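User: I'm preparing a small set of examples for a lab meeting where we compare how different chains pack in three dimensions. I only have the primary sequence for this one, and I'd like the structure in C-alpha cell form so I can line it up with the others. Please keep the answer compact; I'll paste it straight into my notes.
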Amino acid sequence: MQRIVVLNPKGGSGKTTIAINLASYLASRRHTPVLMDFDPQGSTLRWVRKRRPAQAPIHVIAAFEKDTRTTRAFQLRVPDAATHVIVDTPAALDPNQLPEMTRHADKILVPVLPSDIDIHACSRCIRDLLLVAKIPREENRIGVIANRIRRNTLTYQALIRFLHTLGIPIVATIRDSQNYVRGAELGMGVHEMKSYVAQEDVAQWVPLVEWLGRPAGAAPTPPGASSQDAGRAVGDGEPVEGGGGSQAVRTASEALVSA
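Assistant: Understood. Below is the C-alpha cell output for the 259-residue chain.
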C-alpha cells in the first residue's frame, strides 16, 4: 500500500484538487484508493459523496472529525483492500505537526501557485519538511507540483526559476483549467471525463504518475526536468508525443501499479 501526502500549509494551493483527481485516476484504473480528509472544510468528503453509484468507488475517511466514542486509531483505520492512501492535509498546518503528518509517507506532493506569496510559502514548507520533518532530500520522496499555471506569463517564469533553486523535482505542471472546477462540482476527476474534453489535462499527469511509481531512494529527477520536458508540449496545447493524453497516462501507470 502506498501512502501519498498532499501538503502545503498555505491555503488555496490546490491540495484538494490534486488529492481527489489522483484518487479518481487510481479508482478508474481498478485500484482501491482511500482519501483521508484532514481539512476541516471537508471538501474531499463532499466530493466523494457527490459521486454516482456507476463511478469507480473511492473510500473516504473524515479524519478532521473527532469521535469521542471510538479511539483515534480506529477512526483512521484503512480498509485491508486499500492499495493507496491519499492524505489531504489542512491549511495552516504547524511545522511541529509535520513529522506526524508525514510519518510513513512514501511520497509527499507540494502544490504551489504562481504568485509571490505562494512561492515564499512553498519555500518555508520545503524547508520545514527537510529540517523539521527530517525527510532526507536524497530519498526523492518530496515532489513539487506547479499548479494552475498559465504559460508565457511572468509569474509562471518566476515560479519555475524559484523551483529550480530548491533542489526538489517539479513532478507536474498543471494548467489553469475549468475541467478541475467542473469535476469538483460533479464528483469526478479529469481522468473520468471524455477524452476530447480533458485530453490536455490528463496528459499533464504523466510525469506525476511516473514519479509516484519510483521507489524511495531511486535516482531523483533533476529539478524541473519533469515539467520542462514531459509537460512542455501539453502545456502549449500540443499533443503528447506518441499518442493522446489518456494513452500516455495508461502507459505511465504501469510503474504506479507496482508501487
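A couple of notes for your slides: Residues 223-255 have pLDDT under 50 and may be disordered. The radius of gyration is 17 Å.

User: Perfect, thanks.
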